[in-house]
Write a structure and sequence with these properties.
By secondary structure, the chain is mainly alpha-helical. The protein has helices spanning 6-36, 44-77, 82-110, 116-143, 152-163, 174-188. 29% of the residues are buried. The structure holds fe (ii) ion (2 copies). Residues 63, 66, 88, 92, 134, 138 line the site of one fe (ii) ion. One fe (ii) ion binds at residues 18, 62, 66, 135, 138.
């Protein structure tokens, strides 16, 4: 599907991916703390599903599209944003490392490690703060100014990339696969904690 304003369309797609990711990260954080406060029973299936989503979605789907399409187009057009783009791309690598630490912390907690839950919560908090800060920087420093530098053709390419349904990981319909995974996580959240699982803006 084409649009008259591919810039507005691409920005809206990227922001909606941020909101979908932010909702799961936020729910993970609230759920982990609810377990720690003994307001909810530990549910390792739910925790693993949340970690799976926030691992696969940004690290293997969202960030590569930013690197390959949005960031590279900006680097072609201007050097003015290089320092911000350098920092954001380094954060894409750092985010993956933090995700591995988070998975290890969950496994140790599940395995009965002393202070396992406290350590897991600390890792969740660090990952959440890092992720929200990353998305805020992208929205305020990159998306808010990118139109000064990018052409209509640049935006068309970026918009098409973020609309692309041919992601190798999820076959023909990645958006549908993510929607179902999102729904599965929502269904696993205990009823009394469902208000925590709402869409949130990264700001
Ligand atoms: Fe990013
Ligand atoms: Fe992003």
């Amino acid at each position: 599907m084409q649009t008259d304003d591919p810039g507005a369309s691409a920005i809206s797609l990227i922001k909606s991916e941020h909101r979908a990711l932010g909702a799961v990260v936020h729910a993970l954080q609230r759920f982990a703390h609810a377990v720690r406060a003994e307001l909810a029973a530990p549910d390792f299936e739910l925790l693993a599903a949340m970690l799976y989503y926030i691992d696969i979605f940004p690290e293997q789907f969202h960030h590569p599209k930013e690197d390959l399409h949005l960031f590279s187009a900006l680097r072609r057009r201007t050097a003015a944003l290089d320092h911000v783009l350098d920092a954001l791309q380094a954060e894409h690598v750092r985010g993956e490392q933090m995700m591995r630490q988070l998975e290890k912390a969950l496994l140790h907690y599940q395995g009965g490690a002393p202070e396992g839950l406290a350590n897991f919560c600390a890792n969740v908090d660090a990952y959440a703060a890092f992720t929200f800060d990353h998305m805020r920087t992208e929205e305020e420093r990159i998306l808010a100014t990118a139109s000064r530098y990018l052409t209509h053709e640049d935006w068309l390419e970026i918009d098409n990339a973020f609309r692309d349904n041919r992601d190798p990981l999820f076959g023909a319909r990645p958006t549908e696969a993510f929607r179902l995974l999102h729904q599965r996580i929502a269904n696993l959240v205990p009823v009394k904690l469902r208000p925590l699982f709402r869409r949130v803006d990264p700001s």
